[in-house]
Amino acid sequence: MSVTKKLMYINRRAPYGTIYAWESLEVVLIGAAFEQDVSMAFIDDGIYQLLKGQDTNDIGMKNFSPTYSALGDFEVTQIFVEKESLEARGLALDDLMHLTYEDEDEDYAEKDSIKVVSSSELADIMEQQDVLYNF
Amino acid sequence: MKFGIQINEGPYTHEASDTAYHFIKAALDNGHEIFRIFFYHDGVHNGTRLTAPPQDDRNIVNRWTELAEKHDLDLVVCVAAAQRRGIADADEAKRNGKDTDNIAPGFRISGLGQLIEAGIQSDRLLVFGD
Known about the structure:
The complex is a heterodimer.
Chain A: E1 6-11, H1 20-31, E2 37-42, E3 79-82, H2 83-88, E4 100-103, E5 109-112, E6 114-117, H3 119-127, E7 131-134
Parallel strand pairs in A: 1-2, 1-7, 2-3, 3-6
Antiparallel strand pairs in A: 4-5
Chain B: E1 2-7, H1 16-29, E2 33-39, H2 60-71, E3 75-78, H3 79-85, H4 90-95, E4 107-110, H5 113-121, E5 124-128
Parallel strand pairs in B: 1-2, 1-5, 2-3, 3-4
């Protein structure tokens, strides 16, 4: 399959209330094998997926948040977080996990994967995509 | 136009699978192509042959089977989502030590790569669900 498309995975839901976040992450990990131009967007309650210090012991569910830290190794390096969604929930970038990747074009320098963008910037980025996987 | 379809909700509780069905029928009637229909999340419940809805209601599962037969559609149920929710073909049932399978005719079980491929190969990927 020689086609390269711009794929964006959009995450809109909190991590544990429904399974969408976890099963979306499974799609992203499998999708990495297709060597496409991949990005992720976190909006609305979806930003809670990236929250630091998640602890699921008391709800008896698997804490899958460490998996997000591995995204850089899967060459998922563009992670957009909507500014308005953060602000509406009283959160800031510092409340989120520090996700990084190694930039092979710059001698494997460690770089931040997460970029906070405004709603209108995100709309422009979405407009540039070929495929939106919506979760 | 070539469409890829993703269905995220099960039958009856949610209208998503009905809406997808009507869209697909209309698209086919208007000469469009359906590359693949991928059932994910609770959408995998669209693929069980054990449903028995009341006679005066639509039979959603049978409707998929009939549409697939008529138009040679590729109905794919996600294997990971299916294992969690108890949808199995003969191979899956055997692999997981279950006493029966329940996949409806016309459906097949495969991996998430089939969804990614549907996005890449289709002109448009349409997602049905919340």
